[in-house]
Amino acid sequence: MSETTLKQQLAERFREVNGDHPMTQADDAYVSAQFVALEELCAIQGRDGDAVRRLMLGQRLPLPGYLRSDGAEMVPADLFALADEAGGVDRIEAWFTSHWADPITGEAEWRAYLSGQYVCLHSVNPAAIQRKDHLTAAIRAAANEPHAGSAQWAERLHALIDELDALEPAFTAYDRLRFGGPTSRDTCIDAMRARFPRP
User: How far, in Å, CA of 76 to CA of 119, rounded?
Assistant: First the structure.
């Protein structure tokens, strides 16, 4: 199968998962600053781009996080880190899902990981995914706590927000289109800081 065909197949799969939304110049600039083109990463690491595309299409590595408007498949710089840590692509699924006590949750997280849509974390790994889930749930629940508004409560809330802020990148307008609304940064960081200013 030619590189063009594999590239086209991957682009089609990406659009099936994310919808067909235009990337603006601002989106492209954001993505180029946060991610690396698959071809570049493969060249740096001595890997074959087509072999990696086949692994993505075979659901053994995550899809690209973005398709830049020039067609470049944009991936995190640590794309291969989890497979390396797990002992290879053949072992990554079992290694990844084992981080969740509930196998159904582990499987759901694995599918989410393969979608390439975990662009909400600087580094995508089970520990960061679990921490993000914990933080967003705690931040969302905070407004309904009995001591909401107290100084101690505000201090704890802002510590949670700051920790989430460190885990998450800025996102771009394209993300709000593909996710169909505001991002977790919009709702759990920016909106909460505006609603409950730091004392």
Answer: 9
Judge contact between 56 and 83, C-beta under 8 A.
Answer: no
Tokens in use for 23?
């990337």
The answer to whether residues 193 and 161 touch, using CB atoms and an 8 Å cutoff, is: yes
Pick out the chain residues at pLDDT < 50: none
pLDDT score recorded for residue 2? 58
Cα 178 to Cα 108: distance, rounded to the nearest angstrom: 19
Tell me how far apart the alpha carbons of residues 20 and 178 are, in angstroms, rounded to a whole number: 8
pLDDT of residue 34: 95
Beta strand 36-37 pairing with 73-75: antiparallel
Q: pTM for the complete prediction?
A: 0.90
pLDDT at residue 38, rounded to an integer: 97
CA distance 64 to 15: 11
Q: Could you give the CA distance from residue 115 to residue 155 in angstroms, rounded to a whole number?
A: 36
| Domain locations in the chain as residue ranges | 1-106, 120-199
